[in-house]
Amino acid sequence: MTISQYLSKNLLTFGHFNTYNKKRNKLLFKLILKAGDILGKLDKNKQIKKDALFNTAFELFTTKGINKTTISDIVQQAGVAKGTFYLYFTDKYDVKNKLISKKAGDLFIKGERELRKTKISGLEPSIIFIIDYVVNELERDRPLLAFISKNLSWGVFRAALNTPLDNSENGTNFYDGYLQLLEEDEYSYCNRELMLFSIIELVSGTCHSCILYNEPLPLKDYKPFLYQTIHRIIEQYKITEEQNG
Hints:
Blueprint (H helix, E strand, L loop, with lengths): L2 H7 L1 H5 L6 H42 L7 H8 L3 H7 L3 H25 L6 H18 L1 H10 L2 H8 L12 H11 L3 E2 L2 H22 L5 H19 E2 L1 H4 L1
Antiparallel strand pairs: 1-2
Helix pairs in contact: 1-3, 3-4, 3-6, 6-7, 6-8, 6-9, 7-11, 7-12, 8-11, 11-12
């Protein structure tokens, strides 16, 4: 919710300060709305500048490389002051980590949205559908694949999984969706985060070689083996009746 939307929603509360002077209340409401609009525009401008820094950094990192890219390169090409850069990031490596988190998070969020359009249910079919979506997107965007796979760590990826869904009112994210899939599945699972980590490590490591170098197989030929392995990983973390007993 934007500042202006919040103020508009709560106008009656503000108006209670002077319930017997309608003319003054009307003026107060207008001033509050005006202030909300101004603050809303400021927020929008900040987001535009932050997006410009993100997009420029990604372009430079994937063309020049991180080591050869300087903060001056980023701000100059983005058209913002260097001081603005430090409002959002501590250094270029902070940008790199946040970019990886954002890009990886966006992929899984989009995959989850596509899953919602289907009638697929159950943990394993749902995870395989999302993974299939993600690797197909990475195959289409090889610079993104190279950037993510070279710099991905579990800590950064864990942050990506906690990236809120866009326009989400309750702040849900992919990791929340993953936990919900686990709860809704007919089976129970142990070490849930470790299971997800194992799947992500498998996918990021093997698909990188398949997509960029067709080794040991092209991606389309490797997928059946990949999904069989994901099946085995999920089975490994499944709690059986004997374990429950």
